[in-house]
Amino acid sequence: MGQKKLIRNARAIVSCDALDTVYYDSDVLIEGFQIKQIGKNLSSEGCEIIDGSSYFIYPGLVNTHHHFFQTFVRNLITIDYPNLLVVDWLDLIYPIFAQIDSEVIYYSSLTAMADLLKHGCTTAFDHQYCYTKKTGKSAVDRQMEAASALGIRYHAGRGCNTLEKSKGSTIPDEMLETTDEFLKDCERLIKAYHNPGPNSMSQIVLAPCQPINSYEETFTESVALARKLGVRLHTHLGEGENPIMLERMGKRTLTWAQEIGFTGKDVWYAHGWELQPDEYAVMGKSGTALSHCPAPAVLGGFPIIDIPAMQRAGMTVSLGCDGSATNDSSNLLDSLRMAYLAQSYHSKIREGAPSSYEMLKIATVNGAKTLGREDIGSLEVGKAADLFAIDVSRLELAGTLHDPKNLLARCGATGEAALTMVGGQVVFQDGRLLKVDEQQLACMAEEACTERLRTQFPTIFG
């Protein structure tokens, strides 16, 4: 059954279960990957003991949208996102993306995943659409390698772009694929990595990048293959493309997606700040979910989505970091705080802004639902032991401890976790990634970035 662990006498355990249970001064018994029992004074026979007396424990966060390959184009004031139109910014950034190779994919993914794990994220979806002559078809393989090294659950969105720039795409031609080669590689990756079972550490999602950057057949064929093989679908939608879609197709993007079958309980979109109230109902009725990424919305000055209205319409809303080029970090606790504050800002004109705890459930329970996972997202007997703990013995948290459920986003607890556990395995504790030599990897990652990108773009990187 696997090694037994007992987290002894946790000060509070915020379960995020259907009853919103908080356990005080309680234990968590873990056997193998599963939670076996939660309660007081549990037997410690045969267990490795973890002292939880200074911990508040939460379910592992679930990140539902990211672009790991962008991690090496952070902190570039020379092409600062807020000071440029999106199209102008893309024209500057894509020549850099076109030079990314397999080593950059590997080390940038390690960097992003490490940041996620350190800040309580145990399951991450990444939308990998950067395929160049230098990356070949190895991008997701290298990401799986990185995820295995660190011990994070990884859902890989195999993305693509197929439409030529001469026909209206924003993507350089050297980053294009054909629909057939995209689908062929999706089948390869599903066969190699997709595990739909309990405690799965790797899954594959079909994720053509964006409706305006691919042929319609890329999307229709993705739908057919995903439904045939039982995997999920993802794309960007409602992030500024609607005027182009109206010009090209004579219809808004969601209507187009609905007509071709790219909606449903196995589909979710990223961003959605262009969605209209009548479209919330379409998504709610079809079960199509949305990943809310607050950082790029705030950074780009885009509308903040109306989460309460979306939820009233039956939509599932989850939380994502989005790409590092429009976030500059992979800290989902920071995104949680930002999302909470942004929703609170609109509370006077919106009915019922989510509480800090409700935002936590969006980042955990709803994240698991978005990815089609029933084994993660809350701390309950039978579910995977995916969790993180914060040390509440620190002076800066004095006076906040009466409300563990609302503490994180409300009080800005966005620093490193004291402990992160994935499937019963402690992967980060007391400032250390336990499965890798972090200092060595950091040096190698910095070298990879310098050799492959900074030397080629000195005026941008400085």
UniProtKB/TrEMBL annotation:
Keywords, ordered alphabetically: Hydrolase
Superkingdom, taxonomy of origin: Bacteria
One protein family per Pfam: Amidohydro_1
InterPro entries: Amidohydro-rel, Metal-dep_hydrolase_composite, Metal_Hydrolase, MTA/SAH_deaminase
Domain (Amidohydrolase-related) ranges: 56-427
SUPFAM superfamilies according to UniProt: Composite domain of metallo-dependent hydrolases, Metallo-dependent hydrolases
UniProt entry tagged with the keyword Hydrolase: yes
Protein name: Amidohydrolase family protein
